[in-house]
Design goal:
260 residues; mainly alpha; 93% helix; disordered N terminus
Length: 260
């Protein structure tokens, strides 16, 4: 018994030194293990900022407009193009109508003047014929008759010109109607073309935006996966280390018990 006591004491001293050494090794690791095993590690909160708030913020930032918003934008664009086309067509129609009204007014005034001159010429000719004596008619009627004939011819020419102006005005009115219809068709076609181009551009931009969003989301998910793998590896390594240390402690106790 006296010979085994020194061995037992030396064994206990070696065990204590090994335990102290393990305590020194474990001392700086315990805060990290506690931090790893805290709410952030156990709850998986490392992934939550990426899959949760950060991902949602990223999606909100890059979220493309919804179908309702796109339809509303397209409707606004269609209404704006339609209003522009209607305003331009209305302006052209009003200008043509003003020209037609002026032409009709000018033709009506000319026709009225010609008719008035014809009535005056006929009245003057009738008064001249009834006022002169038969014996004076042969000598005095010749020159006034020539003047009346000339005035009548001029009035007839003026009437013909007035009628031609009226016909041109009516033709201009028909042309104005055709021009208005053609203008409306042209403006509608231009509006539809611009709308189609704008819609195509919006679709291209939407496709690019969706592609960028998918790429960023995939990148965020990949980063989260890598961080999760690193965390799991760290947790496995820490758990393995704890198991090894526990096994060493059990082995040390057994050795100490065996020596005792």
């Amino acid at each position: 018994m006296s010979e085994r006591q020194p061995n037992s004491g030396s064994g206990d001293g070696g065990a204590r030194s090994r335990a102290a050494e393990r305590v020194r090794r474990e001392a700086p690791r315990k805060p990290n293990r506690d931090a790893d095993e805290g709410p952030e590690a156990t709850g998986g909160s490392r992934l939550r900022p990426i899959r949760g708030a950060q991902t949602e913020a990223l999606e909100r930032e890059l979220d493309p407009p919804s179908k309702g918003e796109r339809d509303e934008r397209l409707q606004h664009a269609v209404e704006a193009a339609r209003r522009t086309a209607e305003e331009r067509a209305t302006a052209e129609i009003l200008a043509l109508e003003d020209d037609l009204d002026r032409e009709r007014e000018t033709a009506a005034k000319s026709l009225e003047q010609v008719q008035r001159r014809l009535r005056e010429a006929e009245a003057q000719a009738a008064a001249t014929v009834t006022a002169t004596e038969p014996e004076e008619a042969g000598a005095e009627v010749g020159e006034p008759e020539d003047e009346l004939i000339a005035e009548r011819d001029q009035a007839a020419e003026a009437l013909r010109e007035a009628r031609e102006r009226v016909e041109r005005a009516e033709a201009a009115s028909s042309n104005a109607e055709r021009a208005r219809a053609e203008s409306e068709q042209r403006l509608i076609a231009d509006s539809e073309l611009r709308l189609a181009e704008h819609t195509s551009l919006l679709r291209e931009q939407l496709t690019e935006l969706e592609g960028e969003t998918e790429d960023r989301v995939e990148e965020a998910v990949e980063q989260a996966r890598r961080e999760a793998e690193d965390r799991v590896r760290a947790e496995l390594a820490e758990e393995t280390r704890r198991q090894v240390e526990a096994a060493e402690r059990r082995l040390t106790r057994r050795e100490r018990d065996a020596r005792a």
